[in-house]
Amino acid sequence: MINASYSYRASSHITSKELDGTLYILDPHKGHLHTLNETAQLVWTQIIQKSSVTTIIQSVVNTYQVSDRQAKKDVYQLIERWTKLGIIELVLPRANKISHKKPSSPQHPKRKNQRQVTISKK
Question: 7-91 maps to which CATH number?
Answer without folding.
Answer: 3.90.930.60
